[in-house]
Design a protein that fits this description.
- By secondary structure, this protein is of the alpha+beta class.
- It has one domain: 3-Layer(bba) Sandwich (FAD/NAD(P)-binding domain), CATH 3.50.50.
- Strands 4, 5, 15, 16, 17, 18, 21 and 22 form an eight-stranded mixed sheet that branches. Strands 9-10-11 form a three-stranded antiparallel sheet. A two-stranded antiparallel ribbon has the order 1-2.
- It is globular.
- It starts with a helix and ends with a helix.
- Keywords: FAD, Flavoprotein.
- GO terms for molecular function: flavin adenine dinucleotide binding; oxidoreductase activity, acting on CH-OH group of donors.
- Belongs to the GMC oxidoreductase family.
- Its cofactor is FAD.
């Protein structure tokens, strides 16, 4: 996004680096079907990361994958496009980043992205009817800034059956420009700083060879909330004591780098319906306040609810998650065991009766939208190829578990309401016998997973711990900005696909303004 827009301005030379594959291979464009689903479960499309063992999730390491290559996670995600709520941006408390400030950027990028909702189906209308029975209201426009109590059809970034990722919409059309250089199959190692703490080059590896790209004006980090802080720390910018402990010479002590990690953990309830679900995508998003007494603003939702047709990606999600749950992380990265497990899952889904059964399964995903828990990203070593130590610290704040339990109870009320009765069937996960708060908490600890909405590790703002200012400039470094979800001070209640693109859009405007003097 940022590179594509900057290149179009003509006075910039932009050079993003993708981690794997050629541009076409690294950015799958198909919205659904086996081509995309196959890529989602392949290592070349999704980076196989794991968290450190989670104390409040049964001490298990969690799969924390993200998209790799051009378009990043936007090339393999569910294409959900939601701006967030006015309350979300008010909580950022950063001048120039309030709701009225970001809406113009959203509107401009949406004209290029061409976002739209999918057509209603009998099943999705039944879901809305059930949700209305328990207190939700149908919202025709989920992007007008008021989400509390709303349920409606989210917009998605697609055209026909092709996804419109940031890469497809904003970079691919300009690949023939002489001032846009795309390096794929390249792995960024570090930023090279001179004695004045000015970025003079980017060091990267390509084809086994160490190379450098000179920085003449400014460098912009857009590696995401799990990789941008890692690159800063590898470059000597971060918590001084942490850097020294990992053998990195500190260039500038910036303690907030890698702090404030936030994510949206989720848990899924599954039901075996009376007939096949008639849609192929998660089309609906709902927002509720599970804990009315929390200290969030009164107009702020804290949980999200997504109706999930299993036929859309149940097989692929199983292929992604079961190996992550059953194969130890060390063996996952170094052996063929994950492929063996995936092959077995593929065979299990092959019989026709299994496919027909899956078509009748639907789920209700409960997402913790405003977590109180905060995690960290830390260097494991000075080796840029080694994964960082990622600790999302799910449920380390007890209030998060309370919100999830309340959200699960509400989801069950939706599933049992009259509107879904024509579809309704038995709850297969966790099962009707899981009723008490203690039993539901145990279920959450056992089954919680990421929603891939990592944010906050290079926090923007003026408060202690902030890494970038309102212009996205890294404190203590003369010509470096960060433009991705890592700068988000507090994660919005909704998905991060749209906010991340908005940040990239505004970053390009900031670069242009700085160049104009």
């Amino acid at each position: 996004m940022c590179a594509g827009r900057a290149a179009v301005r003509g006075s910039f030379r932009a050079g993003p680096a993708a981690r794997d594959g050629r541009p076409g291979r690294a950015a799958p464009r198909v919205a659904a079907g086996r081509r995309l689903q196959g890529r989602v479960r392949q290592r070349r499309a999704a980076a196989p990361r794991f968290s450190v063992p989670q104390r409040d999730c049964g001490r298990r390491p969690l799969w924390l994958g993200s998209g790799r290559g051009m378009g990043g996670s936007g090339s393999i995600n569910a294409m959900v496009y939601l701006r967030g709520s006015e309350a979300d941006f008010r909580a950022w408390d950063v001048p120039g980043w309030g709701w009225s400030d970001v809406v113009p950027a959203y509107e401009q990028l949406e004209r290029v992205l061409d976002v739209r909702s999918r057509e209603p189906t009998e099943f999705t209308e039944a879901c809305i009817a059930s949700a209305e029975e328990v207190g939700f209201h149908r919202e025709r426009d989920l992007d007008r800034g008021e989400l509390l109590g709303a349920l409606g059809y989210e917009r998605m970034n697609y055209r026909g059956e092709q996804r419109r990722s940031a890469y497809v919409a904003f970079v691919q059309p300009h690949l023939d420009r002489i001032n846009l250089v795309v390096r794929t199959g390249a792995h960024a190692h570090r930023l090279v700083l001179d004695d004045r703490r000015r970025v003079v080059a980017v060091e990267y590896e390509e084809g086994g060879t160490r190379r450098t790209a000179k920085v003449r004006r400014e460098a912009v980090l857009c590696a995401g909330a799990l990789e941008s802080p890692k690159l800063l720390m590898l470059s000597g910018v971060g918590p001084r004591d942490v850097l020294r402990a990992r053998g990195v010479v500190p260039a500038f002590d910036l303690p907030g780098v890698g702090e404030n990690l936030q994510d949206h953990p989720n848990v899924q309830l599954f039901y075996f319906g009376k007939r096949a679900v008639d849609c192929n995508y998660p089309q609906l998003y709902g927002f509720h306040r599970a804990l009315p007494a929390s200290d969030l603003p009164p107009d702020q939702a804290d949980t999200c609810y997504v109706f999930y047709p299993a036929r859309s990606s149940f097989r692929e999600a199983t292929m992604r998650m079961v190996p992550a749950l059953t194969v130890p992380p060390a063996l996952y990265r170094r052996t063929r065991l994950p492929r063996v497990v995936k092959a077995g899952i593929g065979m299990a889904f092959r019989p026709g009766f299994v496919r027909r059964a899956v078509e009748r399964v639907y789920g209700l995903v409960v997402i913790l939208g405003k977590p109180k828990s905060r995690g960290t990203v830390r260097l494991a070593s000075a080796d840029p190829r080694e994964q960082a130590l990622i600790d999302p610290a799910y449920f380390s704040d007890p209030e998060d578990m309370q919100a999830m339990i309340a959200g699960l109870r509400l989801a069950r009320r939706i599933a049992g309401a009259e509107g879904l009765r024509p579809w309704g069937g038995p709850e297969v996960l966790p099962g009707a016998f899981v009723r008490s708060d203690a039993a539901l908490a145990a279920f959450v600890r056992r089954m919680a997973m990421t929603t891939y909405h990592y944010a906050g590790t290079c926090r923007m703002g003026q408060v202690p711990g902030s890494v970038v200012d309102a212009q996205l400039r890294v404190r203590g470094v003369e010509n470096l900005r960060v433009a991705d979800a890592s700068i988000i001070p507090e994660v919005p209640v909704s998905a991060l696909n749209a906010p991340s693109m908005m940040i990239g859009w505004r970053a390009a405007d900031l670069l242009r303004a700085a160049a104009a003097g």
